Structure formats: C-alpha cells, structure tokens
C-alpha cells in the first residue's frame, strides 16, 4: 500500500487540503505518521490525490502506468498509427523496457504526422491525453492524462447526444469517467507494495 504523511504534504507546499485532513485524523499539526494515499482520494478528491503523488516520486512507474491506463480508454478516438505507437512506447517506457532515446523517436514520428484532430473536440482531447502520458513529471502525466481522457469521453458522448440531453450527457460522461479513474487510482495505491523514498524506479536504455 502506498502511503504518505501530513508533513510531506506540508513541506511540498500542498497545504490547501491540510485542514480537511487534520479534521479527518483529529489532528492540529502535521506529523510523520504514514497514512494510505487512498485517504486523500476519499477526503479531498482525485485532483488533490494527483498533487500528493508528487511527494512520492519513488512510484513513478505506477503514476505513468495509470496515465497510460487513462489514455487507453480513449485510444479508439485516435486515427494515426504513429500516435498509437507513441502510447505503446509510453507504456514500455513506464515499464522500463525502453529509454529516453526510443521514446524521443516515437515522439518525433508522431509529431510529424499531420492530423485534423483540432477540428474534433473528442479526438483532440484524446490526442492530448496520449501526449500527456510522456510529460517529464510522472505525477503530472497522471493528472493531465486523466483530465484530457475524461474530456475526450465527455465530448464523445456530447457529440452523439440528442439536442434535448446534450448538456446533461457531457456532465454525466465526465463524472462517470472520473469515477472510473478514481477506482483505478485507488486500486493502484492499495495494491502496490510500499517502497523506500530512495528506491526510485530506474529506466534502462534499450
């Protein structure tokens, strides 16, 4: 199980949600007692949980694989093989099967392919989700990919909705996808074996 502490959150500048956590734990000051990261999801929601991931950098692999999981859910909206290959390479990078060089080659190939995604909000959001998986900071990749993927799902539902239900459909699709993401995030932080702070996940050049 992945844990963090109130002091880590405070030291990282993530103080906005501390009062709610103090109330949850019945405390008035930050301390070094570990607690499950899933508690942050429960008390403060998914976005703050992503911010909290930044203080547990030793789980970079898990944060990147979560990002890939989110992007896979909107992969069907992607038309080009190069973009799909970039997502595959993002997953292999997260697993440590390739290094920065191979990932860069996939980025160059995908960037060089002309597409009309900008004309379609759902496809554009899905494209953004795939590219977000390779952001330099793993926690940022998780947060950004999740948001972009939820937007893609919402826009896809919006475009297929009738005029009478169009507004409600967008919100319902967004909420449903964010709920699915929260469940997957909770599974990851619950099932992952705890690692020491200095036990970072190292990537190897292929």
Structure write-up:
The structure is a single chain. By secondary structure, the protein is mostly helical. Helix 3 (37-44) runs antiparallel to helix 4. The longest helix has 26 residues, at 166-191. Helices cover 63% and strands 2% of the residues. It is built from 10 helices and 2 strands; from the N terminus they run βααβαααααααα. The chain has a two-stranded antiparallel ribbon with strand order 1-2.
- Spatial shape: flat
- Helix fraction? 55-70%
**How many extended strands?**
2
Give the overall pLDDT as a whole number: 90
Category from helices, strands and their pairing: mainly alpha
Give the spatial strand order of the biggest sheet.
Answer: 1-2
The helix/strand order is EHHEHHHHHHHH
Largest sheet: 2 strands, antiparallel
Beta fraction of the residues?
Answer: under 5%
Q: Which parts are unreliable, with pLDDT below 50 for 5 consecutive residues or more?
A: 200-206
User: What radius of gyration results from the CA coordinates?
Assistant: 18 Å
Distance between the termini: 30 Å
Tally of helical runs: 10
């Amino acid at each position: 199980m992945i844990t963090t502490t109130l002091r880590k959150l405070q030291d990282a500048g993530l103080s906005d949600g501390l009062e709610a956590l103090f109330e949850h734990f019945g405390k008035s000051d930050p301390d070094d007692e570990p607690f499950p990261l899933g508690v942050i999801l429960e008390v403060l929601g998914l976005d703050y949980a992503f911010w909290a991931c930044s203080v547990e950098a030793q789980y970079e692999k898990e944060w990147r694989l979560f990002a890939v999981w989110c992007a896979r859910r909107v992969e069907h909206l992607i038309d080009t093989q190069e973009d799909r290959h970039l997502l595959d390479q993002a997953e292999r990078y997260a697993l440590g099967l390739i290094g920065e060089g191979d990932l860069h080659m996939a980025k160059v190939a995908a960037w060089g392919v002309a597409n009309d995604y900008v004309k379609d909000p759902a496809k554009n959001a899905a494209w953004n989700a795939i590219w977000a998986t390779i952001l330099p900071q793993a926690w940022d990749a998780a947060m950004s990919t999740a948001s972009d993927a939820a937007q893609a799902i919402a826009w896809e539902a919006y475009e297929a909705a009738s005029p009478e239900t169009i507004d409600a459909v967008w919100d319902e699709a967004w909420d449903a996808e964010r709920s699915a993401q929260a469940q997957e995030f909770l599974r990851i932080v619950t099932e992952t074996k705890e690692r020491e702070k200095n036990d970072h996940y190292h990537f190897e050049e292929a």
